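This follows on from our talk about sequence and fold. Can you supply me with one protein entry, sequence and fold together? Could you add the entry underneath, on a fresh line?
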Amino acid sequence: MENRIDNLDRISALPDSILHHILSFVSLKQAVRTSVLSKSWKETWYTCPILVLDDHTDGDFARAKEELKFIEQTLLNRRMEMISLRKLVISLSGFWNDPEFAALVDRCVCFAIGSNVKVLKLQFPFFWGRYNLPQIVFCAKSIDVLELYRCNLSRPRIGVLLSLRKLCLVGVYVDDQMIENLFARCPLIEYLTIESSKGFKSLELFSLSELHEIEISNNVELEKVEINALNVHSVTITDMETCVIDIACCKNLKCLLLSELSITDDWLCNVISDFSLLQFLSIAYCRKLRSIKISSPSLKELVIIGSDLVEVKLETPNLSIFRFRGLPISFTSNAMALSETDLYISGNTDIQDLVKYTELLANVNQCSEVLNLHLRTGAVVIVPRECRQILHPLLCGVKHLNLLIVDDLLDFMIPKLVDSLLWLSPHIETISLSFHLGDSHKYSFQFSYREQLIHEGKTPSCCQSLPISCWQNCLKGVKIEHTATFFARPAYGERFYFHDNIWNELNHLFLN
């Protein structure tokens, strides 16, 4: 019997590193409970290099305080027995602005630093003020990763070089002198995030040779950002419309995201042309931009979001993915082989907008075989019969068209929509149509064609003015699949009446 039990307890026989990894995925309360399973599990908990207090006490001050005291005692014991600590996380849902509570956190931090903690994450709620981070944190040479959420960093100057490789500051208060001194003492920093923080007006990052990634977002008092770090390859700057941005010296930049900034057409054109290694560029809601002109032989993916744009001109021969959201614009590109294009089209559906959209689609058609259209309503791409008499099919080069409609699509529009899409792209290979009719629906069409009727004397009259024959005269077969996710259970007859109605209309479209 004893051997049988031993054979069943295979988990306890696993190496400590694996057991520690298992404990890293459970809460503090659950991890402590494992210590009663066996002597080996007790030892595993006692030496676990990761301690996480993720408070879910729902405002229970006494319970939160009890858990924090348990963490304090655990850290003290480890410090006394010189057991190292890799990571400490204290995330509190309520801080209560209580001096005794703050003192408990202070002691936990000090004991963790005494155990040479590598990763320290402190997170507090956005109300009741900020926790005053103890000065000892900025004297700890063991810390590689420091993540602070809603803390106060207004402390004396830092006098030692730190080993920080990753720094995340969210909702902190830090003055200009402190932040300048902080980065002067972090020569090894690689990843930097500063979000929704206050107290400083200038951020200057110089001579940080190890710095690779920077994210700066929603720091409302920040007036100037200057980055002069040669090895930075990713920069994200968002939601700071009054801030002056200088990133011209980041010559090795590969990824750039700019959103809700006061950058101008000339600034963007000049800066992008200096980034010879840039591969990904995203520009969103920069309201001063009217004409975007981008020249970059290295750029592979481009995202543009904005309602005030007038034109986009691209000299990006190696661009493979293009995503655009906004009103119709003038668009030109020399990209030769776009693998995928995403267009998020909004606005009215009058004839003037339709003409602008068709011009935009015609330009995209020249360089993309896969087109993803995100529309509020399917009516935008239903081209009236009278317009088809004066326009040529606009998407002859598109082989795969995916249409995603946000608003509900009336069932009677589906055959009309498919018919219009086949006119826009007469020899398309696949069409995917996703929309909502109270529930989520998706129709997939796969087409096969006969040889085009282009021989003398055999070209139908309806195709004589077109660059290629229309789909009606060369369609060989079509495979249709329908999938649906029903959020509310309909009556049995209602579900199949809807589908059969559309199915009959589609049969009529393809058989006639």
Notes: The chain has twelve helices and 26 strands. The longest strand covers residues 475-485. The longest helix spans residues 61-80. Residues 168 and 243 are 20 Å apart (CA to CA).
